[in-house]
Amino acid sequence: xxxxxxxxxxxxxxxxxxxxxxxxxxxxxxxxxxxxxxxxxxxxxxxxxxxxxxxxxxxxxxxxxxxxxxxxxxxxxxxxxxxxxxxxxxxxxxxxxxxxxxxxxxxxxxxxxxxxxxxxxxxxxxxxxxxxxxxxxxxxxxxxxxxxxxxxxxxxxxxxxxxxxxxxxxxxxxxxxxxxxxxxxxxxxxxxxxxxxxxxxxxxxxxxxxxxxxxxxxxxxxxxxxxxxxxxxxxxxxxxxxxxxxxxxxxxxxxxxxxxxxxxxxxxxxxxxxxxxxxxxxxxxxxxxxxxxxxxxxxxxxxxxxxxxxxxxxxxxxxxxxxxxxxxxxxxxxxxxxxxxxxxx
Length: 345
Description:
Distance between the termini: 24 Å
Low-confidence stretches: none
Mean pLDDT: 93
Helix content: 40-55%
Order of helices and strands: HHHHHEEEEEEEEHEEHHH
Number of domains: 3
């Protein structure tokens, strides 16, 4: 699959490439503020909500640029997953969306639970109390949780699933911070008898099922494109290593077995690229079953490609490929996490 970017999309790609390249060289800089300043946070939201009304293809471009630069940002959780839940809710909270698009409010996606596949009903429970709800449970691997963030939380009620907005500083909310394998900041968020007002409900019942599924689909599409950028970076680094590193008086690129391994990396990358494009073009399809089948295919192909490219890059670099300081080591860890996410669903 191949297509040409429009002029506006090409400009977006150039902007994202420059921004993320600068951020990779200066990890202490405030990347999120720069993304807000350039309007990247507003990209997927409707114009009436303070956004630019761009689509999944533009999101794919941003994801691939971030992956290629190997930067860690809250974009997937805050803008893609939580943002999708906000903008596709039966009654979208326009004020909150505008704050998110402007970088004034940060959201985090609270869905994953220990030992629970993403498609199963959540163990986190919400029970009716007057006009509102009482929330109790625990979410794991909630990434990039800012101190003043709001959480988009999935839970289960006696009458079906529910999606709620919960401020991180609400009474009964606690957190335990840690880092994932690739250095991403993550938190375990616990809820104990947290009072949630009726107005903080994004969706309930069948609407909540649909909303959660749509958020997860958009998240898979984003992570697939991010993986493509990462794999491209690892392939480029590996080819440069094979050209410059010498063994027995010859460059490594002269050895046929190593060339074949690099060719396998390229084939896997291009397969994943095609699937990431397919995800971007299909994630807004009106037919739910079509989206589900496509996303399942994307997860399978991208997961296999992440594993092959990451492991081959480390193998062809030798011991230096697993060090924390080396770009290949960092990329391998990022691809490993994406692989696990894709396999879990």
